[in-house]
Structure formats: structure tokens, C-alpha cells
Amino acid sequence: MACERILIIGGGVLGPKVACRLKRLKPEWDVTVIDQQEEIAYSACGIPYYISGDVGELQGLMTASFQMVRSPEFFEDAKDVRIKTRTQALALDRQAKQVRVRQVETGAEEKLSYDKLVLATGRRPKPLNVAGAELPGVVSVATLMQAEAVKRRISQGEVAKAVIIGASPRGLEMTAAVSDLWGVETTLVEPGSQVLPGLLDVPLARMVQYEVQCRGVQVFLEESVQEILAAPGEHSLEVITSTHRLPADLVIVALGAEPRTELAVSAGLLASPNGGLLVNQRLQTSDPDIYAGGGCIEYPHLLTGKTIYFPETSLAHRQGRVIGTNIAGGYATFPDIVGSFTLKVFDLGVAGTGLTLETARNEGLTAEAALVVQQDHAHFYPTQELIYLQLVVDSSSRRLLGAQGISPNGDAVVGRVNSIAALLGQHGNLEDLAHLEVAYSPPYATALDIVNTVANTAENLVTGFNQSISLTEFQRLFLEEARDDVICLDVRGAANAAPFVARFPERWLNIPQETLKYRFKEVPRDKRLILICNAGMRSYEALRQLQTQGFDNAVGLQGGVAALKKAGILTLE
């Protein structure tokens, strides 16, 4: 190939990945990466864990797996990639194939020529557009310098109160980072109606929220920040929301991210209405000599066919290899994405893939969701944690649409969600998941894994054998409306049910499932029955027993008492 000059704008994740792939395929080529920051190729995802103290040294976020620092010298010596830091791209001339750049320190400008150009400009934090957002102490913590400054302030005792704006993944990670180890009094403010909006459905979002609240964090939902004031008193800032005045020494803005595409858009490259660059499967932009990936692009979602903005680091790594292969003369394509994510919230692992139930229904799909609670290890093994896993399926086609899970054993829940993500990518259905072969040993799993159980539960729902209600429906019917025509039929043992019977004597009936066939006459036919057990299995069996006796007024509670407690909806013991 004649092409020898490759210019890459952006030294985050994607840019260095493309550069290294190219130099392995075409060692003789001239590959240059420019970035306006001093540090390149660092792990921005690790910033919360540096602030929390889980990562001891800031340099740890800048090293390769073999402990070499990813400095410009490292790339130039070990990879033969030319690096220009503190270099800002100002304008792109597609016809001349040149990029005008400026040295940040000196202001000197020059034009860099290319044969192929890679836009790896990434993302930026969404701004907080209110008065006072520029005050000292209001930060997004998106760079290493910001992370170091925040940790220094906290470690020196300068931060007693913090306000986190946005219950995004970064917002929750930063909430845990500043409050867990350092003991900072923390408040989380979210303009939406739940934490992790768009990523979790309400039942699991409630569980995550309750975990945060149990750690002493105040959570205010459906509150918008109106203004931030400099305060002369004990705390230097005051956050004014729609209903509160919150004193703070530190305010962290975590409203999500947006693509950094001004350079590309001003040069006429096609972008979506949301600002993300549009690319084909080879990751070429509307100019075939310009490639893009990572946080500056939108890409088709496998389940909807629509482009979405999903700037996950793992996608950028894989996209970098595709771009490098194609520029070097090969032919590689990047598949449509399913949108997998994971994060750690205090000691709780959270993961998801595909569509939420709400999103699926908004897309016009006939979606249903099944929530299952099950141990991560065999019941007789001495150590175990519960996994809370929700599966979203299309009830018409039985196609898998998505999954969400939480567990104190983060590795366990991520592994299960990843297995479902793989099936989503293959257009998998309920039968595929029900029969998915998974490895089993008592210290690591149960004989019937939770991924198989949740598929079986979903099949029972879509075939009509199981009628159920969600946690939020239970809360509305039984707790908030407290309707006289709705009673709970607790099919657990008497000792487990006794506290609930004592609290709701007129509306909580206890008949253990193993005795139900002898006591059908005690079950009212003129009430709506919510069947409850610890996790959902016995209540399903009781439901089937009642159905054979002509009861058509019963539903099971998904996830049972375990899910109610985990969400903080009903914590009575």
C-alpha cells in the first residue's frame, strides 16, 4: 500500500490501540498520535478506585500490565509510535489531508499531513449548566490531575461534606469513593426518578439505591440543581436544588458523557442529532480516509437497529484493532453492540446487558421480565452470596432482550451477565439460555445455574403458567394503597412468616406450601392473593396448586422476601 502517514487524534484508549496494531502490521509506516493532555493511555475508569484508596498510586493508572509506564517515551521506544502531547487539533482540512495543530505551551501552530486519519477524540463529561458550576471545588474528576487534586483535599481533611450530582455509573462510583474509606458525609442528587437511569429497571435500581443509603449516603431523586453558591461559613459551597440547600466542601458533577466531535463536525463529517459521529462496520466515517471509534461515535444496537451512544472502554479497545487492521489493508468489521456494562457500588457488583424492560417496551416489543434470586454457590457450601438476576425477553418470539444483575459477589454476577450477552449477540432465545451449558462445582456455582433458572422462570411467564407482579407493583398495591381486597399468602414456614403476620394481621396469611393441599378452604376466593416465599420458587409451586383448584385471583411476587429486603421495600424481620 502507498499509504504511510497515519495521524491519530486522541491518546486515550482507542488512539494508542490503533497505533500499536498498525506498527505490528506495518512496522515501516509513520504513525503519529497527538493529544492535548500531558498524560496518555491512562485508565480513566480507575479514577474512582484511586480516590477510594483501592489503587494506592496514581501511576498505577498509567502503567501497562507488565508495570511499564505508558509515557510518550514508552510508545516511541517500545512501539515506534511518535507521540505529541500538549498538542491541540484546531482544524481539519479534508481536501488537503491536513490537520492544523497548536502547541499548548508555546501557542506555535503547524499543519500535519496524513494519508489516513483516525479520530479518537473520545468523550467529555456532560456539563452542569447552572450558575456557580465554575466555582473552585466543583469538578467532574475526569483527568488524572483532577483526581490527584480531589484525593489530596480529602486526605488532608479539607472535605467534610460532598455532593455528587448524577446517579450515573461514575456518580455512584464516586459516591462510594469519597464516603467509604474517607468517611465524607455524602449526598447524591439525581434529576431522574431512579439511580442508573436507562441502565437498570426500577426493581434492581431500588436495590442499588438501598445499598447506597445503607452506607449513610442521602439520596435525593427527581431533584434538579438550580445553582451553586460560594458560602462564607463552615463549608465553602452550597448546592441549591429544587427542594434543598446542601452545604458542601466538594461537588462532583457526574451527569454522564457526551461525544467530543467539534473538529469532525466542523469538517463536514456526518454525525447523529445527538452529536456522535456515524461510522460504517469498518469504522470509517463519511470520509473513507478518516476512521473513528471509542467515545466519539454512535454505533448500531443489535436489538433495536438504532444507533446509540455507549462509550465503553472495552468497545474502544476492540474497535482499535479493527481500525488498525483496515488501515493496514485488511478487512475487519465491528459487530453491532448489545450494550454491556458493570460497576462496583460499595461492595455490590452491578452488571447489565441488552435492553431494560422499560426500553424494550418503548421500542414496541412485547417484553416481559423475570426476576430470580439464587445462591452463587451450592446451598450446602459454607460460603455463599445471593445473586439477583432479571431477564428481559420478547414474549412473542421468545428472543432474549437483556439482563441485569446485582450481587455482593461481583465476579459471579458479571460472569452470568456476560454469558447472556454472548447469547444476545447470537440472537439467542429462551431455549438457548435454558440449556446453556455452564461449569459446575459447589464452591463456584449451583447444579442448576441461575442463568438456567431465570430462563425457565421467564418461560413459565410467557407461556402463562406463572402470573407474577414486580416489587414496585407490590409496593403500590400492598403498602401504599393498602387495599383491603389484597392480601399476602406467605407460603414459608411459620417462624419466617410470624413477624409479617404480626405486623399485618388482617392482610398477611401464612400457610406453608407443604401443607397447602390440605388447607385450600382457608384461602379466600374473594381477595386478590399475592403469594410470597423467600425467593419465588415455593410461591410458584403454590400458585400452580391454587390454579388447579380454580383460583384465578393469585399472583406470585418476583424475587420474594429476599428481593423486598434487598430493595429496602419491606425490611421487617
TrEMBL record:
<keyword id="KW-0285">Flavoprotein</keyword>
<dbReference type="InterPro" id="IPR036873">
    <property type="entry name" value="Rhodanese-like_dom_sf"/>
</dbReference>
<keyword id="KW-0560">Oxidoreductase</keyword>
<protein>
    <submittedName>
        <fullName>CoA-disulfide reductase</fullName>
        <ecNumber>1.8.1.14</ecNumber>
    </submittedName>
</protein>
<keyword id="KW-0274">FAD</keyword>
<dbReference type="InterPro" id="IPR001763">
    <property type="entry name" value="Rhodanese-like_dom"/>
</dbReference>
<comment type="similarity">
    <text>Belongs to the class-III pyridine nucleotide-disulfide oxidoreductase family.</text>
</comment>
<dbReference type="InterPro" id="IPR016156">
    <property type="entry name" value="FAD/NAD-linked_Rdtase_dimer_sf"/>
</dbReference>
<dbReference type="Pfam" id="PF02852">
    <property type="entry name" value="Pyr_redox_dim"/>
</dbReference>
<feature type="domain" description="Rhodanese">
    <location>
        <begin position="482"/>
        <end position="573"/>
    </location>
</feature>
<dbReference type="InterPro" id="IPR050260">
    <property type="entry name" value="FAD-bd_OxRdtase"/>
</dbReference>
<dbReference type="Pfam" id="PF00581">
    <property type="entry name" value="Rhodanese"/>
</dbReference>
<dbReference type="GO" id="GO:0050451">
    <property type="term" value="F:CoA-disulfide reductase (NADPH) activity"/>
</dbReference>
<dbReference type="InterPro" id="IPR004099">
    <property type="entry name" value="Pyr_nucl-diS_OxRdtase_dimer"/>
</dbReference>
<dbReference type="Pfam" id="PF07992">
    <property type="entry name" value="Pyr_redox_2"/>
</dbReference>
<dbReference type="InterPro" id="IPR023753">
    <property type="entry name" value="FAD/NAD-binding_dom"/>
</dbReference>
<dbReference type="InterPro" id="IPR036188">
    <property type="entry name" value="FAD/NAD-bd_sf"/>
</dbReference>
<keyword id="KW-0676">Redox-active center</keyword>
